[in-house]
Amino acid sequence: MRALVTGATGFLGSHLVGHLVRQGNAVAVLVRPGSDRWRIHESLPDVRILEGDLTSVDSWAADAAEFCPETVFHLGWRGVGNRHRNDATQLEGNVQAAVGLARLSVRLGCRAFVGLGSQAEYGPHEGTLDETASTSPTTLYGAAKLAAYHLCRVTLQPTSVRFAWLRLFSCYGPKDNPEWLIPSLISTLLERRLFSLTAGQQLWDYVFVTDAVRAIARVGACDEAQGAFNLGSGTALPLRWIVETVRDLIDPGLPLGFGEVPYRPDQVMHLEADISRLRQIVGWEPQVTLADGLARTIDWLAGNRRQRGVAA
User: Fold this and answer.
1) pTM here?
2) Is residue 13's pLDDT more than 70?
3) CA dihedral angle for residue 172, residue 174, residue 180, residue 185, rounded to 10 degrees
């Protein structure tokens, strides 16, 4: 496979790049000039760098044409953090960028376009969700992802470019953004500080990053994989169990601040992905247990001070 990856310097994108390289694929990555490339440092000797921005595809389209990608993996997205979920930039840049990239994939003669969506496209639900669940997003982030899905689907429908869209549930692992729950919890406990939480009764579906990128790569290579797919572990476990497992792996004697944070009025108590379509169409199964994935994440964070907010 000749793969073009956007969002390569991000958490999930960097792992996808590493996975594709290890599998022997030719990989090109789109990165903004001056971007911090620490997550893909080990892969840099083995990839083609395309410098440019998703909002101006014409400025780097010739370089992409020279690389001649077969599959585009679109993971680039601005404003993925919680504090940016309702920023106007969700719509102003991301949606148009996704459509522009889809159009470019047609011009380049690509065989497939694989986009990364989000469970936020569904909006508030309780229980296990399959791809037929109603979509009523309550954030601009979710609405922008849903809009990008529909616009890319319609753009590519009359072409020969196969379109697939993976709605990611909760993902974790080494190199994750430090503001998310699991890396924030681990970093706090490694520093022997108290972590304040809700009562922890939520049932959440977490998929380890290496499992997630295996699924994305398989969808990219599978000619039968079209349309929307849920990407999660397929199992939801109590948040309290997850937190206590992290604590016990670090130091069973550390206290935890359960109940110190109230539930939000719109708190979702059970979020779980039905991953039947991924299983049936691409033959993917998650391989890393949550306990093992948490242990790997703790080991990585303990050995990488940069990810804990300290300059390397």
Assistant:
1) 0.95
2) yes
3) 100
